[in-house]
Amino acid sequence: MYAGVYVFGKTEARTKIVDGRARKSVGHPKPQESWTVLIRDHHPGYISWEHYERNQAMIRANSNLKWGASRKAGRGGQALLTGLLRCRRCGRMLQVSYSGTRSNVPRYHCKGAQINHGEDWCISFGGLRIDEAVTQLVLDAISGNAVEAALEAAEQLRQRTQEQRKTLELEVEQARYEARLAARRYENIDPENRLVASELESRWNAALVRVQELDNKLIQFDSADGLTPLPDKEVLLSLAQDLPAVWNAPSCDMRLKQRIVRILVHEIVADVDENDHEVVLLIHWAGGRHSEPKVKKNKTGQHGRCTSMEAIEVLKQMAGGHTDEQIATTLNRLGFKTGAGHTWTEKRVYAARHTHDLPPYDPQQTQGYRTLEQAAQYLGVSANSVRRMIKLEKLLAEQVVPCAPWRISAAILDSEEIRQAVRNIKAGSRVPRTQSTQDQESLFSIS
After folding, report:
1. Where is the domain boundary, 187, 209, 227?
2. Which of 42, 348, 414, 417 is most buried by its number of CB atoms within 10 A?
3. 297: in domain
4. Same domain (yes/no): 358, 382
């Protein structure tokens, strides 16, 4: 109305089949070229149509998290990718919410359809793993090798730009020569021959116009940023090495991180693969390249502090036949951590067993078996001697899982072969250090 334009049919209704029934929704915007009626200068306006379009473009540029909105500069907050994520299913920008005891755990979700049309959410996923994955890609993109490659590419681009400018200079020089040649021809013609003089004059004018066009083109080329000098290579490499430490520092402002990401990333299209429990990201880098990382998504009922399935499997195999202290020692030797990233203790194993309904230690399950230390005490030798006998397969023993306590049958310890091996060990207990390994192993041989 204010632009003096009459329009009709800017939105449309859409019908979808949901559970076998037609469901209609209205208010979906249409592109301007699809409006039903658009009559300019329909009535006197307060502003021109061009002014109106500039205002609309400014409003779209300032809008956040709306359909068709562009990326925005970092405005702070705990979410790294606010304003960069777009839903692959509906095209809307993803919104962010926070949870946790300190309200610092981000979660991205697309609920524009629910707000506007009462439909279901498109996608929703936690933001911690997504932010970490994108952060790693960004740091890799600006690492030392990446900086060197970028500088090399920039140098090649600068050389091509110089070659293009040289070509323009040659064209300008050629056009000026042709203009001077046309001028001499016109000056040497007999004025009485008006027809020829008119033709030569038009050619001269065309040559002068050509010279002016090429001069303007060369001026525009020089005014562009194509000849911007390259930054110092050593400075960039030092900054690339220090950036990961600065990025992970607690004092680093999230707004600075967001701005760095927005310099490198144009947009990220996100979707959720429910079958593989993955968040699929399509990253559009500012340089025109694309990458498609996949980030694991927690299943229903899981969270970021869950104990790994490998550790739970060890618990299941050792529960009942080993004490909580033995299970904790085994898990620590295998390098497993709790869901919170801590080492295992007897109390933590106890809590994990109760969570997964695993049985406690039952002495009945270990009847007839001895541990390595118990076997050494029973035979009257050191634990290292028993361990060497097991390694040389002179003494049969078993482990439920690697690094778990050894289980040795008590009946085997009373066999004549083991008794003879023990006598050989005791008889050679004072073997000189210079004795070869083969001779030491012969101590365990059965005569």
Report:
1. 227
2. 348
3. no
4. no
List, for residues 324-362, the tens digit of each pLDDT value.
888 899 899 888 888 878 899 999 989 888 888 888 888
pLDDT at 430 over 80: no
| CA torsion, ordered 243, 244, 247, 248, to nearest 10 deg | -150
Which pLDDT score is estimated for 434? 41
Q: Which two tokens stand for residue 13?
A: 């209704």
DSSP string, 237-296: HHHHHHHHHHHHSTTS-HHHHHHHHHHHEEEEEEEEETTTTEEEEEEEETTS-EE--EEE
Beta bridge pairs of residue 279? 272, 295
Is there a contact between 107 and 97 (Cβ–Cβ < 8 Å)?
yes
Q: Check whether residue 152 and residue 179 sit in a common domain.
A: yes
Question: Is residue 321 situated within a structural domain?
Answer: yes
Whether residue 74 has pLDDT greater than 70: no
CA 51 to CA 5: how far, in whole Å? 12
- Coil, helix or strand at residue 93: strand
Last residue of one domain, picked from the residues 367, 382, 416: 367
Q: Measured between alpha carbons, how far is 158 from 169 in angstroms, rounded to an integer?
A: 16
Residues 317 and 387 grouped into a single domain? no
Residue-wise over 364-390: b if at least 16 C-beta within 10 A, else e? Answer: eebeebbbbebbbeebebeeebbbbbb
Q: Are 290 and 281 in contact (CB under 8 A)?
A: no
Residue 304 binned pLDDT confidence (cut-offs 50, 70, 90): low
Q: What are the two backbone dihedrals, phi and then psi, of residue 321, each rounded to the nearest 5 degrees? A: -100, -5
Which amino acid, one-letter code, is at 56?
Q
Query: Is 79 inside a domain boundary?
Result: no
Full domain range(s) for residue 206: 144-227
Question: Which of 97, 84, 91, 99 has its CA nearest to residue 122?
Answer: 91
Tell whether 443 is covered by a domain. yes
The span from the CA of 369 to the CA of 362, in Å, is 13
Q: For residue 150, which amino acid is it?
A: A
Measured CA to CA, the distance from residue 21 to residue 19 in angstroms comes to: 6
Give me the residue label for tokens 């498109």.
122
Q: How confident is the model at residue 47 (pLDDT cuts 50, 70, 90)?
A: very high
The lowest-confidence range among 224-228, 354-358, 405-409 is 224-228
Q: Does the pLDDT value for residue 429 go beyond 80?
A: no
